[in-house]
Amino acid sequence: MRDSFLGKRIRGGGYALKGAWLLLKNEASIQVQFVISIIMTIVGIYFEITGTEWILQLLAIGLVMSAEGLNSAIEAMADFIHPDFHSKIGHIKDIAAGGVCFAAIIAFIIGCIIYYPYIFPGI
User: Fold this and answer.
1) Nearest to 99 by CA among 63, 52, 60
2) Using only C-alpha atoms, what is the Rg of the chain?
3) Does the predicted TM-score (pTM) go above 0.85?
4) pLDDT (tens digit per residue) in 16-62
5) Counting beta carbons within 10 angstroms of the beta carbon of residue 54, is it exposed (0 to 12), middle (13 to 18) or buried (19 or more)?
6) How far is 87 from 84, CA to CA, in rounded Å?
7) CA 86/CA 1 separation, integer angstroms
8) Domains defined along the chain, listed by start
9) Does pLDDT of 1 surpass 80?
10) In whole angstroms, what is the distance from residue 10 CA to residue 7 CA?
């Protein structure tokens, strides 16, 4: 069973859960995004957003959390490969952080679109 297709998928899922736990435990940027996702979930419950709005909000949260995770992995790999400062490593890290910035901006816009009618009804 261990080397079967299903066994490998289960083992891979375990590695993914371990990675998610390590991100939440050790990475400040993921911890901040996780707290924001909890707050936005509470806000969504409070305003009783629609099913479609939940889907969009969860996709936005997943996009940002995934981008943060990939950024953390790229930074860790870059630091492992070249622990000392190097302009090309800095450039790579900046590009990875830029991807997170795009995801966060889009998530913010989605949040504004979802919550504007609830916060400012009739405007």
Assistant:
1) 63
2) 18
3) yes
4) 999 999 999 999 999 999 999 999 999 999 999 999 999 999 999 99
5) middle
6) 10
7) 46
8) 28-119 (1.10.287.3610)
9) no
10) 5
